[in-house]
Input
Amino acid sequence: MLTTLRRATTWLDDGFRVPGTSFRFGLDPILGLVPGIGDAAGAALSASIIATAVRSGVSRFTLLRMATNVAIDAALGVVPILGDLFDAAWKANRRNLDLLERHAVAPPEAERADRLFVVAVLVSLGLLCLALIIAGALLSVAILRLLIP
Output
């Protein structure tokens, strides 16, 4: 399972290199170019790492850190252009995969996240995705009104 997540993370965060530099980016910031829907899709794809972390029995603290990484990535990614540049640099999926791999090597003694906590985190991420779709739609309408008098 970690091999599949590593491959997905590479495509989402590190799949392409800017020629002449060491800077890498993936499909996640490219998806983010579509207002609202792209950022929500990126957050939904990031949820696969979180789902694997839940099945692996990560602690509440680790799960919360992972969800926070995705939330920061998605919320700031909503800002046109600057948000996509931030998304390319933040690499929430890479951060979350690193957290999951650290857990796999040396599971902490902390209590694993219970069902209610997991549901609360996933519902929060779902609501964030919905808010991003709405914000993207409103932003698109506002931009169109400015461009088309």
